[in-house]
Amino acid sequence: MEKLIKKADVLLESLPYIKTFYKKIIVIKYGGNAMINKTLKDNFALDIVLMKYIGIFPVIVHGGGPQIGKTLRKMGIKSKFVNGLRVTCAESMGIIEKVLAGKVNKEIVSLINKHGGKAAGLSGKESEMIQAKKHKFKSITPETNRPEIIDLGHVGEITSVNHSVISSLLEKNRIPVIAPVGMSKKGETLNINADFVASHVAAALKAEKLILLTNIAGIKNKTGNLISTLNKKDAQKLIKNKTISDGMQPKVESCIKALSKGVKKTHIIDGRLRHAVLLEIFTKKGVGTEIVK
To answer: Relative to the CA of 219, which of 164, 182, 210, 237 has its CA 20 to 30 Å away?
Structure first.
């Protein structure tokens, strides 16, 4: 009987959070191990379905780095990254789009539906939802100490998000699942970092929260200890002094951008934990780093 009472206590602990987030939009960037490990994939789908049934509106933006890397390797194409962004040639862009908007997106939709949800897959190109331009990455050349523009190929920088398609799906009680592919004014297909897409989508929808799943516990300081809460100003300092770098930098920049555009809270959490999304939303402590205004 005591075990049953403890279960009831756990449910009651989540009640204030259920009230707070009822009918609110939460954008979740889904990636890393949570997309590869079968148990974690099932747990994630169950988390999303539960959120929906208790009255929250989840919107998923997914990555697909490991799947893309595996496919490119099979085709003899070597992956190269600059500041956490994948350099994308014309040849690999077609492959990346097929992996993201085809294989990965359909798998996520199918898994959510299998567990009782009503998901709908979208590419950022549909209805010109994600408009973008080619990303120009500037780097300081050590020899000259001057900025140099590095060509990342078909890598996009978002210029605008038309959220009408997403909003329409939410009104129809569906769970949008978005592949991070955009289109330029010239009609070029562009590969866009999923963290950036999630950030812009959250801003366009005036989301309550933006949650980014990662393969680490969260943001750590110079001594390797987890930082549970950061404000925008301190996060920018950590980027400047290189405490935050490589693949973590685009995630933190995405959070800062979302906060500046009206998203109330952002979170970088450990997607290797079972039910990480629920633990972050419905418990006081959470399971990663929150970045706030």
So the answer is: 182
Cβ(259)–Cβ(293) below 8 Å: yes
Q: How far is CA 164 from CA 23, 28, 78, 176, 199, in A?
A: 18, 18, 37, 12, 16
CATH code for residues 25-282? 3.40.1160.10
Q: 206 — phi, psi (to 5°)?
A: 55, 45
Q: Are strands 130-141 and 146-161 parallel, antiparallel or unpaired?
A: antiparallel
State if pTM tops 0.85.
yes
Q: Name the DSSP class of 201.
A: H
For the chain, give the longest Cα–Cα distance: 72
Q: Are 268 and 219 in contact (CB under 8 A)?
A: yes
- CA 108 remoteness from chain centre: 14
Instruction: Give the pLDDT of the chain (293 residues) as one tens digit per residue.
Output: 777 787 787 778 889 999 999 999 999 999 887 888 899 999 999 999 999 999 999 999 999 888 888 888 888 888 787 776 787 778 889 899 999 999 999 999 999 999 999 999 999 998 889 999 988 776 665 555 666 677 787 888 999 999 999 999 999 999 999 999 999 999 999 999 999 999 999 999 999 999 999 998 899 988 889 999 999 999 999 998 888 888 788 899 999 999 999 999 999 999 999 999 999 999 877 788 999 98
